[in-house]
Amino acid sequence: MLRNFLVRLPLFFILIMCVLVASAQDSIPRIILIDSAELSVFQLRPFQEKPRLIPRGIKLANSKASLKPAAFNLALRRRRLPSFWESKNKLGFNVSEVAFVNWNAGGNNAVSALADLKFERNYKFRYIQWDNYMDLRYGLNLQENQKLRKTDDAIRLSSTFGYRRDTISNWFYSVKANFNTQFSNGFKYPDRETPISRFMAPGYSFLGAGTSYITRNQKFNLYISPFTQKTTFVFDQNLADKGAFGVQKAIRDTDGNIIEQGENIFLEFGFLITNSWEAILFENINLKHRLSLYTDYLRRFGNIDVDWELNVEFRINRYIATTIGTQLIYDDDILFNEQKDDNGNITDPGEPKLQFRQLLGVGVSYAF
Prior knowledge:
Elements: H1 2-23, H2 69-79, E1 85-98, E2 110-125, E3 128-143, E4 149-163, E5 171-181, E6 203-214, E7 220-233, H3 237-241, E8 251-252, E9 258-260, E10 265-282, E11 285-296, E12 305-315, E13 320-330, E14 335-336, E15 339-340, E16 346-348, E17 351-352, E18 355-367
Antiparallel strand pairs: 1-2, 1-18, 2-3, 3-4, 4-5, 5-6, 6-7, 7-10, 8-9, 10-11, 11-12, 12-13, 13-18, 14-17, 15-16
């Protein structure tokens, strides 16, 4: 029986091979002509059939939108339009101190502090640029055997709106508004009874229109205005009666009694040029320059009021910096060396002088 099976086995394999060859597909596909009318007939499936057998490693995607607040907020953040506002905030605090104990050469213990706050809010989009700037400074000095003294005091606000014809040019038609004043009373030490300046005495306001040249990185800004109104505010009546800072002083009789009080506001109309420039001199060494030139058309045209500030910052790290700053001011409406007679009458109103201020400080500087 085994012998008969072995004899028939080759015949069985031959039969199987014949069946496979008969049912196999040729490797070269046959060309089948299809009638064009048949192409217009197709079948649509009403729905996609779900796979019945899903391997464990495969996860089907969920097409349903999530209504959870977290997912909704994330979607909104992804679709939010970019902001055209740029914000800059800087806080600086400088402290210097000197102390002596049994010091043969002598000296007074002293502590000085200066706080500086700067805020910028700038908008730029295609043809429009709007720059807003605020600078607040206040400094104090305390020495042994002396009362507290003020070393720096400034409130400075600036806003410039510009419009250009195309997005290539750096020249803008601009409208500019500036305002400057101080926080507290100023004295000519050691006299502490008679203030020589106060809040809004003086206060300066500039409003004008002109043209600006602003680079794309906004590090250089030149503003030229042939039409600028300058307003000087002196809201302290004692200073206004003296004619301080250029306002019309009080009219007095022969006995010195006031007949008509001094003016609190003084208006001028003239030509204004301002320039600001920032540059990196070396690594971690920054230069900042600000210049303002103004001359009045109506009174002494060509006599220029100057306000020039130059600061160099040496940055040690992200939070610690050393600052060297200078400021130069000349204003022919601010007079010095007033002369009076024995009766208190003013014999010589004084003369304008060049004002100079220098600052050296090491402290904390934080930008946010």
